[in-house]
Amino acid sequence: MTSTDVRPQTAAGLTFPPGFVFGAATAAYQIEGAVDVDGRGPSIWDTFSHTPGKTFQGDTGDVAVEHYVRYPQDVALMKDLGLDAYRFSVSWPRVLPAGAGAIEQRGLDFYRRLVDELLGAGIAPWLTLYHWDLPQALQDQGGWTDRDTAYRFAEYAGVVYDALGDRVPHWSTLNEPMCSSLLGYMAGQHAPGHQDPVEASRAVHHLLLGHGLATQVMRDKGADHLGITLNFTPMSPATDSPADVDAARRLDGQQNRMFLVPIATGEYPADVVADLADAGAPLPIEDGDLEVISAPLDWLGVNYYFESTVRGLSEPSGKHPTFIGAERVQDLEPEGPTTTMGWGISPEAFTALLTRISGIAPGLPLFITENGSAWPDEVSADGQVHDPERVDYLLRHLAAMTEAIDAGADVRGYFAWSLLDNYEWARGYAQRFGLVHVDYATQVRTPKDSAGTYADVIRSAKDGV
């Protein structure tokens, strides 16, 4: 912090840099519903969620929270919170039902209406092109294991930018490519539900290639605030033994460095390249790819929820691993309280993470594009939703973020996950992350205590309290 910074303290005792952006985030398949409306084609998540045994209680995103028709109400909730910005994703199969070719204007018209509603409320739209809902037609041709999908993604980016580039200033290519690749093609926990290390390695590289190609397309069309959103999980060894230290290195490599380092430097980490090759799943790099992947960006989105502690094993664990070649790594149960997702709570690791990212990608402004927690929220007898655990989580992580800013991290905004309770992927509707409670039977929205707390922080930051 320089002597010229003005950092008024908020009602929560937090201070933020001038112009700091406060927002909330969602994703298309988690909230929109209307999966067969206005020409939308099927996505891999439609297929996966309708496959018996893949999701909690067979839950699907068919209805979700009906944002496709209730978006004016949801934008009004954002305005009541005092949000500066709203991060949302576009459904690729809603715009290009077959993944390429014929454009569905009715799908684009929905996003035009949403953007107009946001702008009318004084809320800046932050658009994510891909939040996991790959058109099933492209998956039928190999999905992200097929290099051609990267080029189809770039074409899709151009279609959406042509439609919305005049009104949407902030663009992100991918959300959490680690999940799309490793959870989708290695762990089998997410769509398309495969468990193949070679497929996973190919998906990693083609997702990053698609990011770079889409960035080029949008730059050529005049985009000037482009980013990508990565999810980070700090990995700590259980002890200082060589086996534990190597386990943490291996998982940190695939969870964190495999995605950030090539974008920031134009090279994959050498140890990760070696790990994947040793596992028989080398990255399918072609000449010129890394130059494309490392196309200059204007900002980096950081998603953070928890940290992990890992141990190296002398024998395979017997469980199918999330990470390639990690059969001899054990992820330990977190100590202390956990959210209903089973995740630990580590705001201090958030501070360290932001400092670390700033060192790997110096000069790249950071925006916290997701941070939040799931709790067993219920509407009380007084008609309110009291969520003290989420209030505590929110304030502690905001404080951890401001500590990183004070230490020199260039963090310029924070988007809470999530605006609304919604479809939590394979966990179905059992996990509630929202600032706003949704009764799934009636679709009634009720702002939680955490929404009020966040609104107070935003209001006092703007008022200079």
From TrEMBL:
The name of this protein is: Beta-glucosidase
Q: Which Pfam families match?
A: Glyco_hydro_1
The record's keywords, sorted A to Z, are: Carbohydrate metabolism, Cellulose degradation, Glycosidase, Hydrolase, Polysaccharide degradation
Residues at the active site: E176 (proton donor), E370 (nucleophile)
Could you mention a single GO BP entry for this protein? cellulose catabolic process
Q: Which residues bind substrate?
A: Q30, H131, N175, Y305, W417, E424, W425
What enzyme class is recorded for this protein?
hydrolase
Q: Which reaction does it catalyse?
A: Hydrolysis of terminal, non-reducing beta-D-glucosyl residues with release of beta-D-glucose
EC numbers, comma separated: 3.2.1.21
Organism, as annotated: Modestobacter caceresii
One Gene Ontology cellular component term attached to this UniProt record is: cytosol
Transmembrane found in the keyword field = no
The entry assigns this protein to a family as follows: Belongs to the glycosyl hydrolase 1 family.
Molecular function GO labels: beta-glucosidase activity
Taxonomic superkingdom: Bacteria
